[in-house]
Structure formats: structure tokens, C-alpha cells
Amino acid sequence: MKVMSTALLVLSLATPGVAQASTDVVAVQATSAATSAGKTVSVSCPNGTKVVGTGGAVTGERTTITRVRPSDDLTSAEVTAVEHGVGTVLPWTVTVRATCAPGEFTLASKSGTASAEAACPGTQKALGVAGETDGGHLTKMAPKNNLKGGLVEGSGTVTVHAICGTRPGLVLRGGTPTVVVTKTASKSVACQGDEQVVSAGGAVGGGIIEDVTPAGAGATVTGEGTDAQGQAIRWSITPYVVCSH
Questions:
Q1: Pairing of β 178-180 and β 138-143
Q2: Average pLDDT over every residue of 14-28
Q3: Which of 63, 67, 195, 223 is deepest in the core (most CB within 10 A)?
């Protein structure tokens, strides 16, 4: 069990596949070898497609993702993870995920201390959001409320990467925190009617994000909140999902 009493994005921010009905969209992923050391893994989109969503997952105790980033030309994505605290002698892996689609998309990036926001140009909106830190921890990766960019929060210097473009009927759902006092908890948010999932995001306050995944017509965030003795604490969990017609 991971033990941490401050907000920490630890295991994953995994982007679900774009609309199942879109046969021109493909999800790709790659997993590193299992070792006990920091590592980076990358994956490329098929020819003729670009990255519209990114995500990552890491296994093992006292490990954390510090970088989820699409390439500048949006043809690939990579995830970096490191050990924190006393680390671990056990082997662990990191997985990168990318959702790819044909079209022209824009990458908007910006850095800041503890938080950073990047705006999408013109009428474009955020399809997916990625982020990185210079060695601390990430606590939030999510689109802005109006989908006109992305927001990343964490410790140290952080950088947000908003993947911008257009899709019909884009809307952001979720964003309401739920306070819990159990060691682990999950919170879901769903697209509505005939809307389809484009990407997922998440945030924690006082706990650890264990997973952010698609769940049927929406997204589910799972987290853990314990103190140094492994006892449950009061913490919050917030899911986000970007939906499209």
C-alpha cells in the first residue's frame, strides 16, 4: 500500500479512447521493462494520425509519474516515472497511452510554479491535457472549465500541455470534489445522452490518485488516502470527462 498524506498524482492519468463509433481513432500503448529505477517509455501513433489524448500508469510502491507529454509534432507521447521517499527495491513498470486520430491539432504549452494554464488558440478547445514537473509531484491534470485550455498543478515547476482541436459538441462534465474518509474510494462521472467519451482527467486533495479510466459512458477516478501509519484520513477526489457527439 502506498502511504502519503499530501496530494500526489501517483499511478495514472489514463486517457480513454475517443468515441467508439469513430473507426478512424485508435488507442496505442507501450509498457517498460520491470526494473527498480526511474524510467521513460514512449509510443508512436500510426502513420497519418496525431495524438489527441495521453495518459500513463505506474506500478509499485513509492513510485510516481512526473511527466506525461506528447511530442511537439503530436506524433508520439512519453511518460516518465521515478521513485520517491525511500524508494523501493522491487521491480516496477510504467505504461504510456496515446489516443490517435487523423486531423490537424495544436499543442499549447506553458510553465509555472505550482500551477500552469495553457490556452487553446482561436476557436479550438482542449481535447486532452498532459503535464510534467521538474522533480516534484503532480496533483491535477484537467481541462479548464470552458475547455479553452488545460490546467496542471503540482510541486515545483510544472508544465501543462493542452492538445487543442475541434470535435462536435465538446463538453466538460464533472469537476465536483467529493470528500471521503475511507482509505480508498472511487468517483465516476458520465457523459449524457448520445455523448461519447473523448478524454478523462482527475485531481486529488490530501490523497493519492491510483487510476483515472473510462467507465462505460464516462470516467472513474480511484484514489487512496492514508497517513504515515496507514490509517484513513479526510481527503477529496474529483473526476473529469470530456464528451463529444
A1: unpaired
A2: 51
A3: 223
Between these two residues, 9 and 199, which has the higher pLDDT value?
199
DSSP secondary structure letter of residue 163 = E
pLDDT at 38 over 80: yes
What's the CATH number for 8-244? 2.60.120.690
* pLDDT class of 173 with cuts at 50, 70, 90: very high
Q: Please name the residues in contact with 229: beta carbons below 8 A apart, sequence gap of 6 or more.
A: none
pTM for the full predicted model? 0.82
CA angle 32, 204, 26 (to 5 degrees): 45
Domain boundaries of the chain, sorted by first residue: 8-244
Sheet holding 26-31, edge to edge: 12-13, 50-58, 94-101, 26-31
- Distance separating alpha carbons of residues 148 and 129, to the nearest angstrom: 11
Centre a 10 Å sphere on the Cβ of residue 176 and count the other Cβ atoms it contains: 11
Sign of CA dihedral 35, 40, 46, 49: positive
Contact between 123 and 166 under an 8 Å Cβ cutoff? The reply is yes
Digit-coded pLDDT (tens) for 72-92 = 999 999 989 888 777 888 999
The single-letter code of the amino acid at 140 is K
C-alpha cell at 96: 504510456
Measured distance CA(170)–CA(147) in Å, rounded: 8
23: which residues sit within 8 A by CB, 6+ positions away? Answer: none
186 within 8 A of 165, measured Cβ to Cβ? no
